[in-house]
């Protein structure tokens, strides 16, 4: 950590300021005397005698003005500037808890108070960003470590001479599935990072939402057949939407994935899509374990998984991606859930608001 030590304080006496005040006062007094004495009949001897005392007075006045000016400048300018410098150095060294007290000179807000207020707001934002960054790194490290440990363990078992061919086949299947989950995790991290930290240029055009919902659903056919899940589809035909097709496909894929993950064998997943004038509603329902109201409050947070029994099947980034895209395309998403009965995610898309825009 760097050690900064900056001192902007000057002494109360400054030769440069003293000479400045001396010249100014001498000029003012000289001009005033010339104007006052012009036309008056005063002996030259008297003028000469008073010149020396006038010069001393100018010296003394210059000193007084210099001390007053430097005192004022030190306490009302240099002191807050020093506080700001010290605070910026602490920010540079990673101390985001630093705050500066406002000056409010004579009960009024000045420019330095505005700078201090802006600095405090900046420090508050940086503190929040640093906390999110640390949490994100911690969560990513944990999420990466888990599948890597599984892969290493199964790889070690496969190298064991006592392992049978049937066991090796099972272990290789587990390694393959875990590597797929790891690939999805990294892909979702990259997507979320791009959506959060880069300027997004939406490529909007009108496309058939009904076809998109059906095509995305068919990608999960192997999963619902394996679990013998009943599929209920109620999608209006030819629902046209003007939006970014690539981004909206991420929404449906993640909602479908979430529904199939939590739906048990012989359960039911329902997909509905309806158009009401300028509003489109898409609902994805499952008959899974459901969630509590407390879980519902955090379900869109990164790496949050309400049901830890399914933690190995996901990475807690899918719904975070969904929420981010929902915000980008100016849509809305709602959750209805009951423990033991299932969950319904409903997305509402306003056709009038889904126009081209840059984020």
TrEMBL record:
InterPro entries: HAMP_dom, HATPase_dom, His_kinase_dom, HisK_dim/P_dom, Sensor_HK_Regulatory
EC number: 2.7.13.3
Domain Histidine kinase: 139-353
Gene Ontology MF terms: kinase activity
Catalytic activity: ATP + protein L-histidine = ADP + protein N-phospho-L-histidine
Domain HAMP residues, every copy: 75-131
UniProt keyword terms in alphabetical order: Kinase, Membrane, Transferase, Transmembrane, Transmembrane helix, Two-component regulatory system
Stretches that traverse the bilayer: 20-40, 52-73
Name of the protein in its database record: histidine kinase
Organism from which the protein derives: Intestinibacter bartlettii
């Amino acid at each position: 950590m760097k050690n900064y030590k900056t001192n902007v304080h000057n002494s109360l006496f400054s030769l440069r300021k003293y000479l400045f005040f001396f010249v100014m006062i001498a000029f003012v007094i000289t001009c005033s005397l010339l104007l006052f004495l012009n036309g008056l009949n005063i002996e030259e001897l008297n003028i000469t005698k008073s010149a020396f005392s006038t010069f001393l007075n100018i010296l003394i006045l210059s000193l007084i003005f210099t001390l007053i000016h430097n005192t004022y400048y030190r306490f009302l300018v240099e002191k807050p500037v020093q506080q700001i410098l010290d605070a910026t150095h602490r920010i540079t060294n990673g101390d985001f808890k630093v705050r500066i007290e406002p000056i409010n000179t004579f009960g009024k807000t000045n420019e330095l108070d505005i700078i201090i207020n802006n600095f405090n707001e900046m420090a508050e934002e940086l503190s929040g960003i640093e906390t999110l960054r640390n949490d994100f790194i911690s969560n990513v490290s944990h999420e990466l470590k888990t599948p890597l440990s599984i892969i290493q363990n199964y790889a070690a078992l496969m190298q064991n001479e006592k392992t049978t061919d049937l066991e090796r086949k099972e272990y290789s299947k587990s390694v393959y599935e875990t590597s797929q989950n790891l690939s999805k995790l990294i892909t979702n991290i990259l997507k979320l990072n791009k959506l959060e930290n880069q300027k997004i240029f939406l490529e909007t055009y009108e496309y058939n939402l009904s076809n998109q919902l059906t095509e995305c659903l068919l990608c999960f056919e192997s999963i619902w057949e394996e679990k013998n899940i009943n599929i209920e589809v109620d999608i209006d035909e030819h629902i046209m939407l003007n939006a970014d097709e690539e981004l909206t496909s991420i929404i449906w894929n993640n909602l479908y994935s979430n529904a199939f993950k939590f739906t048990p064998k012989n359960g039911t997943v329902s997909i509905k899509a309806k158009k009401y004038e300028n509003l489109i509603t898409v609902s994805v329902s499952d008959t899974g374990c459901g969630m509590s109201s407390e879980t519902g409050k955090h379900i869109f947070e990164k790496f949050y998984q309400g049901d830890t029994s399914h933690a190995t099947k996901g990475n807690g980034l899918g719904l975070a991606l969904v929420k981010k895209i929902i915000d980008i395309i100016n849509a809305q998403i709602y959750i209805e859930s009951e423990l033991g009965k299932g969950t319904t995610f409903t997305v509402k898309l306003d056709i009038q608001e889904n126009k081209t825009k840059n984020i």
